Protein 1
Amino acid sequence: MGNKMKNIAVLVSGGGSNLQAIIDAIETGFIRDAKISCVISSKEDAFGLKRARNHNIESIFLDASGLSREEYTEKIIETLNDRKIDLVCLAGFMMILSPKIVQTYSHKIINIHPALLPKFGGKGMYGIHVHEKVIEEREKYTGATVHFVDEGCDTGSVIIQEKVEVNGITDPKELQQKVLKIEHKIYPIAVKMFIEEKI
Ligand code: GRF
């Protein structure tokens, strides 16, 4: 009651299937009192931008070429400030931003990682590499983690985590698909918890 509508920004670089999961969760009413005010992509041809347009969400391509990490981060911060963003969701966003964004949007930036952090996080642990490593290490379980973004790489506090059995899968792409299903389930839950101030 009396809750004001919260503004979410989703940052993508690729397919945006996690973005889609959040869009769907808002459209079905699972997440209330929030809207995606903009989708920002570091890649012009990211399918995530198309998903945004399909749902009449402002889609913004922010080009990093020729900019330092600090300058690019500044551009992102300006874009977020202009739209009075309450929550920033990183969803397959492939750029590493300067610490300034973490200071400016402290505890307002969340990320999804396709493994059970703190395992299989950090440098080089992104995309398919994560799943290759999980298979290589013969892990019994993998999963997905939504966490706050801090100044480290995949080190912020965990909001929600769910595991899934590797079950002898040896194809990293197959494992990636299995984990993506978990991601699409837990990311909207984390967003809902944030919006309802239950974290
Ligand atoms: C996901 O696996 C996410 O965990 C990782 O990048 C991937 C993005 O997929 N950070 P999508 O663009 O949401 O489909």
Protein 2
Amino acid sequence: MPGEAHRWQALEHAFESLVQAYGYREIRTPAFEDTDLFVRSSGETSEVVSKQMYSFVDKGGRDITLKPEGTAPAMRAFLEHSLGGQGVVTRLYYFTQIFRYERPSKGRYRQAHQTGLELVGSPSPAADAEVIEITVRFYEALGLKDISVDLNSIGREETRARYREALLTYAEPYLADFDSDFQAQARKNPLRLLDSKIDVLKAAMDQAPSILDYLEDTSKAHFEELKKLLGEAGIAFRVTPKTVRGLDYYTDTVFEVVCGSLGDKALCGGGRYDNLIAQLGGPATPSVGVAMGVERALMAMEAEGLVTDQPGLDAFLVAATESARTTLRGLARDLRAVRVRTGLDLDGKSLRSQMKQADREKARLALILGDDELARGEITLRDLEKGDQVCVALEAAVDAVRSRLG
Ligand code: HAM
């Protein structure tokens, strides 16, 4: 709604100016993609693919899906338009809508928005550190204080295969109490048990084996280096072995930023996805990225008292007599040309109702023109915030307004 849109604009602006300083360039992908893209990338057993996709067959018989996330579309476009190259690092950012058939609740919607980053083509832990650093700097730029970075490594496919088995062995006794559908789902993707919201499982998972004990040496070294780099950048984090993420494309590093005021909902999520581009038919291209929920960032800002009211107009022009209107239309044109946000009555309203309108628009200044002023070639400039007023020459009105506004 118009009353809130300025918050979105401020957030977008904070994000863009930050990521552009790191050399990221914007990518805009279509609202829908082939369904297969998401099935192949996010994984058939992921919650997003198995339960949440808005998929349909179009009139041409194509199976398409409204994008539930931005990474796979960006990588599909990256490949289709040959954005990368051997040894080249590509930095992309986006601002996108996502569609997920979720159970709606505060901070969880069926149509939501994300800002995201994808750093494509670097295997280095320095790339992971860069993405995490930008994420934290973004929340700092918004003014959020009560945030923490949950960091984990889920290793490579071999690690996860061994860990899945260990986790399932551990979880089996607890599964007996659940129905066969639940058990089948858990056996297919036991990692999902780790962030279960069911109390018994939640408690059980606190004692579950840690994936960090199953990492291969290269993953361990990668994780150690990443932690060192984050320390160097002054980024506080905690290692949380239960953070495994809901999408299948991750390798090694995964992370989320959580916020005290959002409870169990994450502000953002991301990680490394070294196999995704190869899975989509491209060359092996190690990459890492993050997506931040816009609604959640705004909710957190609200909870921390950081949202500001929409700024009002800079100036409202008030005609005290009919003959003043032509001059005021000209003045409005001059003010708007220098981007002073200017309001003007269109409907021949009375002086009183124009002043009311200036008030409603939260105008900082009112410029009032009547016959007397017109004859003298002047205009009254009233500062509605401070309550004082002066007469200024009509031809100096634009400068007077700008200097008042600073
Ligand atoms: P994700 O964890 O599925 O990751 O979503 C990232 C963030 O988007 C969440 O932490 C949350 O803030 C927001 N979000 C997701 N679903 C909803 C919803 N239904 N309502 C409101 N907010 C929501 C991804 O999407 C990955 N593509 C992130 C990534 C980028 N990984 C690598 N690069």
